Amino acid sequence: MSGRIRSGQLLADDPLATYLEGDEEPKYVLRNRKSGVTVEDDDSTRIQPDDAFQALALVTDVRVLFVVGTAGGDRTESVSYSEMVQAKSADDGFRTTSLLIETINGRRWSFPCKGDTEAVASFVDGLAQVWANAERLADEAEQDIETAEQHLADGEYEAAAPHPRARRSARHTAARTSGPAACAAGSLGARRGDGCLAGR
């Protein structure tokens, strides 16, 4: 993160780094001066910074945190990867793009800034898909356990053991699941930490 962001000059309260929790690691920072962040569900809510401050989107290894500086103090909104359906970059024209995030509950988050948000969106979407696949595998494993317990209760001991093809399928699925994380981590190399785009 740049010096201005670390020092807290863009926000009303504390520096952005103080919003990190525990071992949470920052990966990218986006910012804009006027647009803020828009949240859409049944209604549309736009949180904009006041004149002396800016809006920041901090992408970490566990979530995307939006912090908007206002005269009344910083306003924060957080979206964890486990809540996301997908993330993508949208071209808004005039050298401006937006990071777009869609969540399980139907909310859509939009954070515009000058520059290209494609790498950031790819990273966020990669981790969102990892979480989705991990939860699906957990659900499948829970179902397998329940089925095996039922077979044992019925005295069907051979049926309770997982079929070799099922074990191979699980390993193959797990390998595919790790793909997005590896790809996202690889794309991070040149821009880790200092992925700050010029504000709008």
Explained architecture:
With 200 residues, this protein is α+β, with helices and mostly antiparallel strands. It has 2 domains: 3-125 and 188-196, Pleckstrin-homology domain (PH domain)/Phosphotyrosine-binding domain (PTB) (PH-domain like, Roll); 127-181. It has helices at 3-7, 118-153, 157-160, 164-188, and strands spanning 26-32, 37-40, 44-47, 55-60, 63-68, 75-80, 84-93, 96-103, 108-114, 195-196. The strands form 2 sheets. A 5-stranded mixed β-sheet has the order 6-5-4-1-10, covered by helices on one side. Strands 3-2-9-8-7 form a 5-stranded antiparallel β-sheet. β8 (96-103) and β9 (108-114) form a beta hairpin. α2 packs antiparallel against α4. The protein is elongated, with a radius of gyration of 21 Å. The model is unreliable at 163-200 (pLDDT under 50).
